[in-house]
Amino acid sequence: MSKKRGLSLEEKREQMLQIFYGSQDFFLLRELEKLGPKKGVISQSVKDVVQSLVDDDLVSKDKIGSSVYFWSLPSCAGNQLRNVHRKLESDLETSKKRLVELMDQRDGLKKGREESDERDQALDKLKAIEVKYNELKDELGRYADNDPATLDAMRNAIEVAHEAANRWTDNIFTVRQWCSNNFPEAKEQLEQMYKEVGIADDFDYLEPSVLIPPNLAGD
């Protein structure tokens, strides 16, 4: 024996509306939850079904004191349906006018674009130009590193780095001199420590030519 099919949401809405229409009375939610199962709507789904009716203005809802009441009259539903019908008719009329405008616009755009050998040739030429443009664009990208503005920016960045490196070199010389003056007895230990941290005997200020590659050197 096949299992009985449950009600769809629309069917549940219709059954709950029949409760309102049949009594034309005011209900608390708990009262509707008791009446719902008699119409095939389980009590657990009554709240959501009634709220969907409220959202569609098919059921009215208001708080009186500390209680919330629900009600709906057949005349209210009729008015709501008539309002919906009028809105749909208005939307349909607007859509028809828009369709006519778009068709006129389409016909206007077709003028001068009729299929012809001349038009096909023009389209082929345009396509060839677009392909060539993309090729040149890609080639230009490959030469971006040689752009004068890019080279100037790199030169400026190298100059800033050069100044910073020599500034730190100067600071290191100052610290070494201070250590020599204050700890002359630890000269050998200090020299060994300098080597361990990468300060070799030939440590000195950097010349600009050391930092600037030939292709970035100025004229």
From TrEMBL:
Main subcellular localization, coarse class? nucleus
One cellular component term from this protein's GO annotations in UniProt: nucleus
Q: Where in the cell is it found?
A: Nucleus
* Stretches assigned to the Mnd1 HTH domain: 16-74
Write the protein's name. Answer: Meiotic nuclear division protein 1 homolog
Alphabetized, the UniProt keywords read: Coiled coil, DNA recombination, Meiosis, Nucleus
Give a GO molecular function annotation for the protein: double-stranded DNA binding
User: The organism's lineage?
Assistant: Eukaryota, Viridiplantae, Streptophyta, Embryophyta, Tracheophyta
Stored InterPro entries: LZ3wCH, Mnd1, Mnd1_HTH
Q: Which GO terms describe its biological process?
A: reciprocal meiotic recombination
State the species of origin.
Answer: Protea cynaroides
Q: Which protein family is named in the record?
A: Belongs to the MND1 family.
Describe the task this protein carries out. Answer: Required for proper homologous chromosome pairing and efficient cross-over and intragenic recombination during meiosis.
The residues forming a coiled coil are 85-146
Leucine zipper with capping helix domain: which residues?
150-206
